[in-house]
Each structure stands twice: as C-alpha cells, then as structure tokens.
C-alpha cells in the first residue's frame, strides 16, 4: 500500500518515516486534544507524516481492576474530534469482531493487537471495513509468520496493511527487538517499529507492567538505521499518572528532541 492511502495524512513526499503516536488509552477529551496538539505542532515542523494513536478501550489487562476505558462510544467520539480538530488520521485497536465496524465509523486505521493477530475472523472483519489495517506482530511469532496475517487481509479484499513489530518475549518479564526481522517483514508490507511497547517488562508480580523508557531513543535510532517505514511511540504529559502503560511511555516534553534526532539520522542514511 501507499502511505497516501491513509486519509488526511500529510507530508507523504517528505521522505521521512511516518509516526503513530499518542497516549496508550483515551482517558478524556482534554488530555487527548492536548497531546494531539503538541504532536501535530512537532510533526508539522519536522514534516513527519502523522497518525494520532489512542485506544478506545483496553481489553488485555493483567488485573480485573485495571483501567479499561471511559466508554466505547465516548472514547471513539473523542478520536473523531481529534481527527476533525487537527485534520489528521487516527488509529485505535480492536479486540472483537463487533469492534471492527463500530470503530471504522470513527477512525482511519484499525489496529490488531499482538495477542490477537492470528485470530482469522477478527482480521477478516477488520479488512472488510476497507480501512488501513495495522497488524501488530505477536510477541510469540517469527517475522516470517507475519506474511500469513498480511495475506489474510489481502484475501479479504483489502491490500492496505501494515506490520508493526513490538518486540519478542525474552524470558517471562522482558522483550527484545530482533532487527533482523525488519527487512523480512518489509517484504510483506510497510513495517513499523513499536518503540515503547518493545520496552515493556510484562508479567510483574504486582500485575502492573513495567518498562524501560530510558531506552526509547536507543531502540528508535536502531529502527531508523534499519529502514523501518514508521515508528510507533506512546506518549503522555504525565506518564506516572497515566491510566495504562505509563511505565514505558515517553514523556511528551521529550518527543520533539527525539524526533529531531531521528529525522537527522533518516536524512543521513537516505543520502547514501
């Protein structure tokens, strides 16, 4: 697929990587608009094609008392308001077959969570909406196995698919990115590196996922050097009090510096 297939996306001729970024979960309208406004300003300055990311609900939680959302329709309407306010595309993840058509009314890209990317009926339902489908590589899957997920989308009549690598399980409580998989997956579809989820430390005894946000720039730089098409970075103005995945999110104040460095690296490697 071409990046220009995404509605409202800008700077597709800038030769930059594209960016999926925003909070892990939609916690409310004010926070979503505040984060989007900041990222739009940064990506406009750097000419980075940008898609706002926010989960309308969180179905995969460690504990039953973990935050799952503010209400499906309420959160989806906030995503639509972000899109309309800033004239940008949006992406959210879906978890059930019934989510596909519902979310497609509000967003431009449907994301399949890593734990669900082998669920054929879910992929077919997502594909049949005609939206761009972002397939997150399962932590338990090889890069080569993702060709089958992409093929399911294509066989459902939709050729608009991305792959996103979010790390591979390395023991019970750590993730690792195998950069050998990037060129492999790029043979099947444009490939995104999910920087922040790759730094999760899941399965903590507390039931709250940990993370290594101090390593965000290290992983992001390596992704750019290895020619990823896009980056996925969750960010928040108050990660310590975010309702989901705060331990591995980037503080919003650090995003501009990080992206500036990455754009410079991108220009350097594309000069050869």
Your description of this structure?
- It contains eight helices and 13 strands.
- It is of the alpha/beta class and 272 residues long.
- The chain has a single domain (3-9, 18-270), classed as Aldolase class I (TIM Barrel, Alpha-Beta Barrel), CATH 3.20.20.
- It has an eight-stranded parallel β-barrel with strand order 1-2-3-4-5-6-9-12, surrounded by six helices. A two-stranded antiparallel ribbon has the order 7-8. The chain has a two-stranded antiparallel ribbon with strand order 10-11.
- β5, α5 (146-155) and β6 form a beta-alpha-beta unit.
- α1 packs parallel to α2, α4 packs across α5 (146-155) and α7 runs parallel beside α8.
- The protein is globular, with a radius of gyration of 17 Å.
- It starts with 17 loop residues before the first strand and ends with a helix.
CATH homolog superfamily? Aldolase class I
The portion of residues forming beta strands comes to: 15-25%
N-to-C CA distance: 25 Å
Order of helices and strands: EHEHEHEHEHEEEHEEEHEEH
Contiguous low-pLDDT stretches (5 residues minimum) are none
Number of helices: 8
Radius of gyration (Å): 17 Å
Question: Which structural category do the helix and sheet elements fall into?
Answer: alpha/beta
């Amino acid at each position: 697929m071409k990046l220009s297939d995404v509605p409202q996306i800008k700077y597709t001729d800038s030769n930059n990587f594209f960016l999926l970024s925003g909070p892990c979960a939609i916690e409310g309208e004010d926070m979503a608009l505040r984060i989007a406004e900041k990222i739009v300003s940064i990506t406009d300055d750097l000419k980075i094609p940008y898609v706002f990311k926010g989960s309308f609900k969180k179905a995969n939680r460690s504990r039953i008392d973990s935050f799952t959302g503010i209400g499906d329709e309420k959160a989806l309407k906030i995503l639509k308001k972000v899109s309309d306010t800033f004239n940008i595309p949006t992406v959210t993840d879906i978890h059930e077959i019934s989510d596909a058509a519902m979310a497609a009314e509000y967003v431009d890209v449907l994301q399949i969570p890593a734990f669900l990317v082998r669920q054929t009926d879910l992929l077919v339902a997502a594909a049949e909406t005609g939206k761009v489908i972002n397939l997150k590589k399962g932590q338990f899957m090889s890069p080569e196995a993702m060709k089958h997920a992409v093929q399911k989308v294509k066989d459902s009549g939709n050729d608009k698919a991305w792959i996103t690598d979010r790390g591979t399980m390395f023991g019970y409580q750590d993730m690792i990115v195998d950069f050998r998989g990037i060129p492999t997956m790029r043979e099947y579809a444009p490939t995104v590196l999910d920087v922040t989820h790759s730094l999760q430390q899941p399965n903590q005894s507390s039931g709250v996922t940990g993370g290594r946000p101090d390593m965000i720039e290290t992983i992001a730089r390596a992704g750019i050097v290895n020619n990823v098409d896009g980056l996925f970075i969750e960010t928040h103005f108050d990660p310590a009090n975010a309702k989901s995945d705060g331990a591995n999110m980037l503080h919003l104040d650090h995003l501009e510096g990080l992206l500036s460095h990455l754009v410079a690296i991108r220009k350097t490697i594309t000069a050869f």
